[in-house]
Amino acid sequence: MIDLNNIGKRQADLLRTAFNNKQLAHSYLFVDNDQNRALNTAYWLACLFNCVGENKPDGTCINCKQILSGNHPDVLLVKPEGKQTLGIDQIRPLKEELAKSPVESTRRFFLIDEAQRLTLPAANALLNLLEEPVAPVTSILITNNADQILPTVRSRVQVVSFDESQASGKTAILLKNGFSQDDLEELGDTQKLDQMIKYFYEEMLEQNDLALVSAHKLADSAKTSSEQQYVLLFLKLTAQKDLDDDLKRLAAARMLKYLIEIDKMRFSNVNFRNSLDYLALQWKR
What's an example Gene Ontology biological process for this entry (predicted)? Predict the structure, then answer.
C-alpha cells in the first residue's frame, strides 16, 4: 500500500523545487535501501503534479485517490509481479505507450520498481524511453543498488540517492550490496547456508569432484531470489578477500571472472542451478 507519509523528506523537497521551477527531469533513478520509501516518493511526485487540492499533494483529492489506488491512466507501474526478473515483455508496453499523449493530465509517469531485476534485453529496450521521449513523460526507476543498473541506463537518468541506512556489520554489507529490508527478513538465519557456500568455494579451489555435488545441494537449498543473491555475493566477497593472499590471488581472480560471467547469465534468465553448475565445471578444465 502506498503511504505518502513514508517518503524521503529531503528528496521530496528537491523534487518539489524542481516541480515549482518547471525543471522536472524526464527520467530519474531513485536509489534507496528501503525501496518502499522510494516507491512512495515516486507516487508522491505523481500526486504533486496532478493534485487539485490546496496543500499539494493532499492525497485525498480525486486525482490523488486515482493515482494511489493504481487507477490513473497517466501513472503506470511496472514491477516483477513475483518473478525473479523484469523481462522485455513487461517493458515493451511502456514503449508502446511512449508515443501516446496523456489522457487526463499534462504529463505521464512511468514507474519501474525493483529496476535491478531488469534483464539485459529489457534494460536495452528502456534506452529510447529514457532519452528524449515524444510525449511528455517522467520515468522513475527504483532500485536498492545503482551498481546493478546498466551504465548505459544510468547515464540517461538523474540519480536521486536516499539516506543511507545506519545498519552495521553483516546487515550493512548486505544493504550496501543491493539487499532490501524485505530481503533480509526473507533470508533469516544464514548460518547453514554460509557453511555450504564455504565448502563449495573450497572444493572448487581444490578442483574436488564434490564441487558439482555441492553446487546441486546449494541450488536445492537456495530457493528464493534473496538466498540465491546471497550465495553469489558470499562467493564474490570471499574471492575479493582472497585477492590479498599471495597463495590464493590467482585463483581468486579467476573466481571473480567466472562470477562476472554468471551475473551476465542471470541477466539472461539462466536458472540458478545451471549457473552454479557452470561455476563448478569451470574449475575442472
Answer: DNA-templated DNA replication
